[in-house]
Structures are given as C-alpha cells and as structure tokens.
C-alpha cells in the first residue's frame, strides 16, 4: 500500500481544493428544521453536479470524472478538510448508482443515473425491517407477481431520507420455499405512489433522520427488478459493500475533524498538560490514524479483487467505537457546554449513541471480521 500521491493525484486534489475554496456553500439554515437543512444540502449537491464534482468516482459515461480509487478517497478527504456537507443524495451516489452500474440493464442506467447526480431524484434504502435488521436475509416483506407487475406488502424501518426520496432500493421476499438467501429480489420502488406510507422517527438529537416505511399492496413494474428475480441477495451485497467502503473515508475524515476540535478545546483549557487527558487524547489520535490507514487499505483490496472486501466492516466497527469514546471525553474536557442541548458538542454526544447500531451492529460486524477476515470458525448455537 503506497500512500504517496502521483502527479495526477496531486493535480486532482489541488483542483478540487481550489474549487471548494472558491465555491463555498451558503450558511447552513438556522430555521425551518429538517426540511430546510435537507434542501440546503440538495442545493449544494446541484452546485457540485454543475461543476462535475457530485460523483467524480462515477465513470465519465455516466456523468462522473472517471476518478481512480485513490482520487475518490482524496475527494472525501477534501470535502472533510473544507468542512462542507456531503451531497444530499449520498445513498444514491454511493449505493444506488454503483449498484445499478453493476447489475442494472442499459435502460435502467439511462433512466435512473442522471437524476441521482443532480439530486433531482433522491434515493433511500429499504433493507432493514423490525424483525430483520443485521440479519437481512430474514426479511419478511413479500412481493407477489401479478401479470407484468409485483404487488408488495410489508414494513421497513431505519429508512434514511425516506421522507424526501423518490426511489427506494427495496429488497423483498419473492419465494418462501427456498433457502432464505435465495428467495430475495431487489426492486426499484417509486416512493410517490398509493400504498407507500412514511413515518419519521425522531431521535434524541431532535431530528428525524430515519423513518418507518409501510407498504400496502404497492405495485412495482417487472422492469424495475434489478439483477434478476431471486438474485436479490447478491445485488444487496453489492450495495452493502459499497456502503461500508464508500462511507469509510467520509467517516474517518469526520472523526479527524472532531478530534482536532477536541484537541483545540483541551489546549484552550490548559488540559493538554494533564497526563490523564493527554493519554486519552493520544489514544484517540492513534485510533483515528489506524482507521484512516485501514480505509486506505480497503482501496488496495478493491484494486486487487475488483470489489470492496469484508474489511470494510472493521473500519465501521472501530470508527463507531472510537467516535463514542471521543464524544464522551468531550463531555469531560468541554464541560457543561457539551451537555447543553442545541450546540455541536451536545449534538455529537447524542448522535454518537447510534453509531454502534446503524450500518450493521457492532456484534454483527465482529462476526463478519472473525469469520470472513480472520477465518475463524462459525459460532455454533448451544444445543
């Protein structure tokens, strides 16, 4: 793994860095709640898209820049360095679009990819259910064939951005008589149709980032099947691997920013001379650098094997644990301000509580690392 940038990579970084400096987003809205905040991010993505910076990792034929894996990593690091928001349609850009590029038909690519880039059509991910979170293959939402359509009934949960989405990456059970992994099908579902009900879930931060999604005899055309009937598990794995690999860089940059702010706060309060605080901050720094290097290693694996590997689970596991430790330490360093509702310190402390649940629970990620990275035997259930 060589972390030395080539001349082309340095030129890419400098071009992006200059553009971000010259085109900062407008100030984040202070009124209007979640809707105003999302609209602000949507407008920002359109600005990025107009300049060709919404998804540089996409091939040029689909509106990207054909960026290399290293350039894609540089992209996320520079967004973090500039402290600008991620694009609003991040699920479409990082998950939906790349999944369609692998499994979609030419017609699907032509129809769905352009509006993802411009944020004209927002995407969400309909995977988790009340009884099938980390164990995705246990999902019970059913799709029954009716002519050239499928009739879908069921429930999803933790569906991010569903309240603003036009399309949903939906995995359902289409065959209940085969092994649970083999009876799944991946659909593109129009969210703006009868039978689709979205109920926002307000978090302890006060925002409604996630939603419950209820489907009552929703109709999906057969043309909206992705990857073939009964092949939903393989298609979903492509989405999930891109989720952990693509977000890895964004997560580690965000953690680096937070730790830098925390170091500055400790310095301002004269706490860097306190051995107890200095040791904890040094440990967090070491963890942060380890996560950064693991994220870079993930790129090497993609270059070798052609797709993200299970090591992405390790990045997410270590990030979530480290971020929780950092926000907890902030409460000691910053003091009452970190426990006062309505500021960045308190928001991060509250929001971090969900890190070890979202995107795969830490327990499940540990199993993936143990079995698929370390090659340890599966744990057998007690008789």
TrEMBL record:
It comes from the Bacteria. Residues 230-374 form the Acyl-CoA dehydrogenase/oxidase C-terminal domain. Residues 124-217 form the Acyl-CoA oxidase/dehydrogenase middle domain. It holds the Pfam family Acyl-CoA_dh_N. Keywords: FAD, Flavoprotein, Oxidoreductase. InterPro entries: Acyl-CoA_Oxase/DH_mid-dom, Acyl-CoA_Oxase/DH_mid-dom_sf, AcylCo_DH-like_C, AcylCo_DH/oxidase_C, AcylCoA_DH/ox_N, AcylCoA_DH/ox_N_sf, AcylCoA_DH/oxidase_NM_dom_sf, Mycobact_Acyl-CoA_DH. Residues 7-120 form the Acyl-CoA dehydrogenase/oxidase N-terminal domain. SUPFAM superfamilies: Acyl-CoA dehydrogenase C-terminal domain-like, Acyl-CoA dehydrogenase NM domain-like. Its cofactor is FAD. The keyword Secreted does not apply. Belongs to the acyl-CoA dehydrogenase family. This is Acyl-CoA dehydrogenase family protein. It comes from Svornostia abyssi. The lineage of its organism: Bacteria, Bacillati, Actinomycetota, Thermoleophilia, Solirubrobacterales.
């Amino acid at each position: 793994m060589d972390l030395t940038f080539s001349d082309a990579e340095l030129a890419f970084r400098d071009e992006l860095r200059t553009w971000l400096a010259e085109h900062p987003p407008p100030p984040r809205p202070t009124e209007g709640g979640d809707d105003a905040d999302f609209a602000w991010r949507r407008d920002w993505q359109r600005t990025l898209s107009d300049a060709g910076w919404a998804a540089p990792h996409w091939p040029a034929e689909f509106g990207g820049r054909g960026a290399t894996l290293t350039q894609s990593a540089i992209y996320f690091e520079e967004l973090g360095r500039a402290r600008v928001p991620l694009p609003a349609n991040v699920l479409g850009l990082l998950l939906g679009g790349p999944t369609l590029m692998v499994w979609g038909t030419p017609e699907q690519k032509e129809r769905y990819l352009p509006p993802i880039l411009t944020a004209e059509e927002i995407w969400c991910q309909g995977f988790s259910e009340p009884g099938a979170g980390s164990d995705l293959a246990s999902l019970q939402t059913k799709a029954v064939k009716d002519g050239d359509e499928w009739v879908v009934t069921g429930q999803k949960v933790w569906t991010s951005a569903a309240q603003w989405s036009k399309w949903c990456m939906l995995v359902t059970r289409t065959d209940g008589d085969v092994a649970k992994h083999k009876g799944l099908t991946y659909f593109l579902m129009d969210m703006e149709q009868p039978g689709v009900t979205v109920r926002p879930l307000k978090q302890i931060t006060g925002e409604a980032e996630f939603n419950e999604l209820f489907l009552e005899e929703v109709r999906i055309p057969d043309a909206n099947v992705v990857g073939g009937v009964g092949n939903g598990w393989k298609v979903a794995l492509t989405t999930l691997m891109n989720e952990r690999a693509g977000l890895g860089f964004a997560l580690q940059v965000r953690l680096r920013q937070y730790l830098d702010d925390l170091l500055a706060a400790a310095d301002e309060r004269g706490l860097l001379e306190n051995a107890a605080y200095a040791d904890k901050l040094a440990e967090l720094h070491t963890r942060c650098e380890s996560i950064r290097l693991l994220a870079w290693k993930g790129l090497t694996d993609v270059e070798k094997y052609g797709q993200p590997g299970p090591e992405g689970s390790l990045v997410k596991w270590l990030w979530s644990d480290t971020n929780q430790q950092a926000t907890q330490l902030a409460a000691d360093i910053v003091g009452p301000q970190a426990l006062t509702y309505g500021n960045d310190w308190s928001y991060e402390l509250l929001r971090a509580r969900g890190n070890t649940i979202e995107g795969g629970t830490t327990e499940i990620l540990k199993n993936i690392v143990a079995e698929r990275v370390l090659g340890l035997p599966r744990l057998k259930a007690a008789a």
